[in-house]
Write the structure tokens for this entry.
Amino acid sequence: MDFTTPPYLLKNASVQRVMLQVLLALLPGIAAYVWLIGPIIFVQLAIASLAALAAEALMLKLRDKPLGLFLGDGSALVTAWLIALTFPPMAPWWLLVVGVLFAIVVAKHLYGGLGQNPFNPAMVAFAVCIVSFPALMSQWPALGLGLSFNQQLDIVAGLAPRVDALTGATPLDAIKTALKLGEGSIDVPSLLANQNIFGNFAGRGWEWVAAGYLLGGLWLWKRGIVGWQAPAGFIAGLVLIAGALWLWNPAQFANPLFHLFSGGAMLGAFFIVTDPVSGCTTPKGKFIFGLAAGLLAYLIRVFGGYPDGVAFAVLLLNICVPLIDMYTQPPIFGMKGEK
Amino acid sequence: MLQLFKFRGGVKPQTNKTPSLGEPIAVAPLPTRLIVPLHQSIGGTPDPLIAPGDRVLKGQRIGGADGWISSAVHAPTSGTVLAVEEHVAAHPSGLPTLSVIIEPDGRDEWIARTPVDYRSLAPESVREMLRDAGVVGLGGAVFPSHAKLTASKTVPMEELVINGAECEPFITCDDLLMRERADEVVRGIGIFRDLLRPQRVLIGIEDNKPEAVAAMKTAVQALGENFEVIAVPTRYPAGGAKQLIRVLTGKEVPAAKRSTDLGVQCFNVATAYTAWRAIAHGEPVISRIVTLTGNVERPRNWEVLIGTPLAEFVALGQPKPDTNGYLMGGPMMGFEMPSDAPLVKATNCIIAGSPTLFPPKAPEMPCIRCGECAKACPHELQPFELYWFARAKNFGKTQEYHIFDCIECGCCSYVCPSRIPLVQYFRFAKSEIWAREREKKAADTAKTRFEFRNFREEREKAEKAERLAKAAAAKAAEKKAEAKPAAEAAAGALADAPAAQAAAPTDAEAAKKAAIAAAMERARQQREAAQPKNTEALTPVQQRDIAEVDARRRQAGIETPGEPSGTADANAPAAPAAGSEEARP
């Protein structure tokens, strides 16, 4: 009996359980991913997981921390899975490894390890790789290629040539590029009519992956793992600016639903801006964090030079967290209505 | 039906109350020895009234209250005082405290008990009786009850809240007390009501105790009282005084205020019971009901004499072989009781622990800022922020984040996925702040003394110089008066010159000294005038408050502040006792 510290009764909760539930919540999205691209995503998840665990073990050893305790907490796996899911499905294996190493070694452990990182490690990995390897990070497979698993494997392993025909643009990129090239002669509704790239309400196929993330995210919210504030804020921010511009000029701006289900928006709303370590902690702060990230993500993805803006938006907001938290401290019991 | 309010946060641990509810309250046999600590309230330590070798009677006062916030202690049975010595106390520190050791003679002979009709007495006399009967808050905080029975002069007393919530898991002593002795509990509440004259009396009981609710309702009806018995939702810490007040009245009492400032006061049901026994039967608090549960063969409630050694008490429940320690209080706020410590007035429950009942805690992990603690905190604090600041020893920040509003209920630690003993960090921070305050106060007192000494020395010097100057001037004048006729008589007479010369330097020196002293005095006065005082530019309200305080102080024979005597600073932050007036959950 450990008598040093009351309470002696403890809820059955642990960091491991939290992380495990986050991984479970990613499964609907992953299932849709497999249906869309194929089982290659499992290979990518495995590569990222192994790299993450190895990097974690190495850093823990260097930092003289108990290996068993921290390797089992599942936090490295969450980072690894988020990286695998945000990187292009057929990214070469080493690109994933580079991303994961940067996330675990630099973004996590050099800042003090679990609970100490001011920046979201997965988003750091994404940002580093898209800046360093823009071409590879923009190669998304065109749908309906009918590549076999072995062919996909060869591409990932670097055994097959990365032919240009193999890679298409993301729906977000397709719109941006077409609008830029069309210089006003093309409007968004006609672009969205292209069934090769666009589906029912967003990118063809990808919309269902996003829907899978939404489903998993709602489950996390129901389980109480994430609060509603950050996802609601993010969605509100994105819908607000996308809706305003769309209402103003529907020919030049895609509708809010398209933006919500494209790129990293859904994953971001439920799995990235909800990261407790690098996000805000007060209820109001969480909403502000989400709202600002949503607005910023839209601005970067529509007006910026990158295909998507979630990663940069989140990283920029990570910097603001201490400030937002400081100014949004909720009033305490017995002191409401007092300033 | 009364509208109930909600408090935020809280947790729902397994209640584990059923095992000890199976049997009625039993009277524990007389132990072989009684160890009665003199300090059994949150207030001062009573002075021993007996000496080793004295024979004492059951109920005889053995420790007299040493002040208003203090409470008497009594001999739990008749016998011989073996010693008045330091003995291990029922406290997590295991530090010894002055205790009276009594060997029972087995006759259990009472003192002369004089029941009184309190209605015929002045309220002050009733309060004094309660103090001298050792009536303290039995919910766990042991705050002297008489000191809570004066209504605020400015705020009308709206509600008297009676706490029968008993929200901590395992504990059932209040439940059984209400089931079996509801009549006397209600009569006790009547005393409190008559002293405080509230508009309403609200008795809050968690809804997992339907029998107690029914018994109390019956008793209230039978006695023709208009008290409301209310079942409140079961959620820890609904039995915390502030939480129960919130649930029943909607009022939130912050740490900086007394509940009477908001027109509400709160007492535990067991306290009401002891108050009734004390007034109507002349029986001081010498026993209490204690739940013995956990890893024992026979869990039940016992009426136990205060001072019964833990080992003798737990033997009544037949602890199982794998028992590895005893908790006093519940599993949320209790602590491990040293095995040779005695049961005291604060002991509501003893839980025998075992590795299966309370498994060893998983190792502590870093905080991941998940905010579960903030969601669980009934005082709506941000425990993880407090944790970061406490860890960094940034105590100023902990105060900014309201660490003194923490009631140490343990909800944050209960839910923490990283298994961080948050409450320990907060206790550490609080004790560090108190220690620093004490040091600062000591330093301030020393500074004031030093400055006063300097001032006195300067003043004395100045006075002396003045005296000297006067004397010298007088002497010089005398000399002059003498010298004048002489000079007239013999112009240019050399004989007088040395005398005049001798007088002149003394005169000049004294004048110089006086001038210096005067200059120093002026400088001092200027310095004082330049230093702003917090007693300047007061609003009329503040001035009135100060006048009231001064009047009270004079009445109580305390010096008014400003005197360099080290009087406690009224503006000092919460002293250890101040936040603990309310009963613990």
About this structure: Confidence is low (pLDDT under 50) at residues 560-583 of chain B.
